[in-house]
Amino acid sequence: MQIEVVKSKIHRVKVTGADLQYIGSVTIDEDLMEAANIIQGEKVQIVNINNGERLETYAIPGPRKSGEITLNGPAARKVAKGDIVIIISYAIVDFEEAKLFKPSLIFPNEIDNSLT
């Protein structure tokens, strides 16, 4: 049997932009992606603390040390600049492996999204 578990989480980061005209995705500072073990194109869930919205999209890297968290395309309608979000990715693993699996969880500075 296989189950879905949390693989990565960027806990409470501030949205720095919303670009409705971009084709889709969420742009994430590459330093944050690396620290959370999220790769380019990976499916992620965005949970908006401010309004309760939940959506799925895919991650693309933004400039390092920029703190960028930009929701692109239709997802831009679900957030506002300054909202606090949680970014989560999941993995499907064997049940026994899941018992030992340790997700990559990071807790950036909420003010500027830096890793402190």
Features:
mainly beta; Barwin-like endoglucanases
Account of the protein in words:
With 116 residues, this protein is mainly β. It has one domain (2-106): Barwin-like endoglucanases (Beta Barrel), CATH 2.40.40.20. The chain has 2 helices and 8 strands. It has helices at residues 30-36, 95-100; strands at residues 2-14, 17-19, 25-29, 43-48, 54-62, 69-72, 84-94, 104-106. An 8-stranded mixed sheet has the order 2-6-3-5-4-7-1-8. The longest helix has 7 residues, at 30-36. The radius of gyration is 14 Å and the shape is globular. The model has no long low-confidence stretch (mean pLDDT 97).
* Shape assignment: globular
Poorly predicted tracts of residues: none
CATH C-level: Mainly Beta
The secondary structure category is mainly beta
Q: What is the compact description of this entry?
A:
The chain is mostly beta strands and about 120 residues long. About 10% of the residues lie in helices and about 45% in strands.
Please give the structural blueprint.
Layout: E1 2-14, E2 17-19, E3 25-29, H1 30-36, E4 43-48, E5 54-62, E6 69-72, E7 84-94, H2 95-100, E8 104-106
Parallel strand pairs: 1-8, 2-6, 3-5
Antiparallel strand pairs: 1-7, 3-6, 4-5, 4-7
